[in-house]
Amino acid sequence: MSMKLSANRWAQWLVYGDHYSLQLEDDGLLLESRHHRQYIPFSAWDGQLTVSRGLLWGTISLTGYTDEGDPLPFEVFGLPWHRAQQAGQTIYRSYQAYIARYQKRLAMIRPSLLAEYDALVNAPAYVRLSQLRAAQQILVDKLEGEGIPASFLASLDEVMATTLAPVLRGDKQWLKTRNQQWQAMMLNQWQAWFDRIESSPLNDGQRAAVLTDESHTLVVAGPGSGKTSVLVARAAYLIESGQAKPEQLLLLAFGRDAAEELKTRIKTKTGHEVNVTTFHGFARQQLAEHQGQAPMISPLASDETAKAAWLTQTLAEQWQQPTPRKAWDKLHQQQTLPLDDNAELTACAHDSRLHTWVWSRLSRVVQANTIKRALNDKLASFEEQAALKNELAVIWPLYQAYKQALKAENAVDFDGLITQATKLFQQRKFTTPIQFVMVDEYQDISPARLAMLEALCHGKAEGETQSPRASLFAVGDDWQAIYRFAGADVSLTTEFAQRFGDSEICWLTTCYRYPSTLGKVAQQFIEQNPKQLSKQLDYARDKAPAKAPKAIKVITDDKLEKTLASLAKKYANAEHAVSVMLLGRTHAIRPDALESWQNAYPSLALRYTTAHASKGQEAHYVFILGLDEGVFPAKPRSLSLDEALLGKNEEPIEHAEERRLFYVALTRAQKQVWLVHQKGHASPFVEELKGYL
């Protein structure tokens, strides 16, 4: 049916620029003005139309809607009045017939639309954002298949439009509420199981974390907050609830000991073998499985003696060539090298200090895995670029020799293992059963390891339009990120939500290790860095008597032995020795008298370790030694090649990494910490802490 109503010539001239003509089409209205035509489909209109009378002519007013649902008012002027009234009725009847036609079409797909909605709402699991988007797309496609834009649904069936609206909008808040309701049901259903899965019942935060299953979930776990329990319980829950078969799980830890502990605990709880391994172990497994054999690890990577022999020989060879020799001499004159000023370079090829210097830089160039020009470009942003390029000039030929040596052995190093596995996953010429990837100590992750995980989680297998993606469940604590020197990047944790759009962050905030008197001081100290994630911890040990001794004390090193003696006396009649950890910034701070103290104080179980090595450990009492100016925090050295290649440290506070290291040291103690420094040489950390005590 077509009908056209226009203003006469004179009226058209008077309404210059406005609409003066209206034409009824089968499924909409066409409005015309002098300069353009505007089509309003019935699907973008609500059927409301007003005919008003002026002195000479009639006006038809109506409101259309944009795709976003915003109103767009239109007016057609200068129409003959009696015809305008008839046109209004004709248009309305035509609109009603159109609605009836589309209501019939909607009735045909109504059951499948509601089934899709119900499947999402009543899914027997946590629903991810990606599932919400998939359901949204299916609903939109079904509607559009019948020519029904989602925005038109309310005009056809208001109740149904209201029901489907959150899915059609992809409403994240609605999904969050839906998941919270599902979690509340599961907490009820699995309560007894959560009470007994670990030696102590899991707390509310731990239970919520186990039940969270977004595509990317980060569990931020403070020291002593039971993160291992969450990993074990989640693996067990996924298997026992039928959401995963054991072979669909992968747990990655940074060290073999941590991996073994997790593997054993999961086997004990579930009776199932789950793949728990290190990043390198996993890379090796996968390469062996999909390429027929495991790559051979070069002795240069795995054997210190072989590495030292290769460095000695390669340095000697380099120094016999005039160009490299010149570059080395230049560095030696600048006193950059850790050698005596009057040492003859050719006699130093086996010097272990020189080997350490070379290896720290060489290993970073190996990690960078790129061309020399790219490295020089990276160095160009630093003030010290001239000195850094001098270092690169001597390291680059060693890097080339190193690559050559690996090639000759037909072997790889540990970085190469990760790179090869990443390539394998990116090609994705095979399907993998892995659906749930869990990572312990996520704050220690490096970009290369994360690239391997992303290739595993996000790759597509050949012939698949979209393989189901494995989810990433990461547990860590940005406050304890202390491995930047090894290539770890704390921003991968602090910027988790920005990096992964589909993400959820859970918090384990109950600390079981130490009392609030220690925790609050440590927290105040670490939160001076605004880049760290802010968390409010609470302390399970605060049931202690009100007269508990001060949790943090400051002493000078001449009082150390006396303090140990009085501690030993306090526990002289105890059934078991109490654990005492002595921590230092480096191995050099280990006290010479440690063995004689151990013999003198049998009621104390003494051990020395570095702050880095103490991560994950605990003791009743902790002494942090060598808290002297320039020792802890370590004195900033002139920028070296290995540090520069990590990129600029953008953290807005001095000693950011050293602060985290000190925080780790502080939080090893269950009862009390002593900060030990030389008289008159207290480190800035000690001075700062005194202000919080």
Automatic annotation (TrEMBL):
UniProt-listed PROSITE patterns: UVRD_HELICASE_ATP_BIND
Enzyme Commission number, as recorded: 5.6.2.4
GO MF entry, a single one: DNA helicase activity
Keyword ATP-binding: yes
Catalyzed reactions per annotation: ATP + H2O = ADP + phosphate + H(+); Couples ATP hydrolysis with the unwinding of duplex DNA by translocating in the 3'-5' direction
EC class of the enzyme, as a word: isomerase
Coiled coil: 365-392
Keyword Coiled coil: yes
Keywords attached to this entry: ATP-binding, Coiled coil, Helicase, Hydrolase, Isomerase, Nucleotide-binding
Residues noted as binding ATP in the record, renumbered to the chain: 221-228
Domain (UvrD-like helicase ATP-binding) ranges: 200-515
Family designation: Belongs to the helicase family. UvrD subfamily.
Protein name: DNA 3'-5' helicase
Organism: Salinivibrio proteolyticus
Organismal lineage: Bacteria, Pseudomonadati, Pseudomonadota, Gammaproteobacteria, Vibrionales
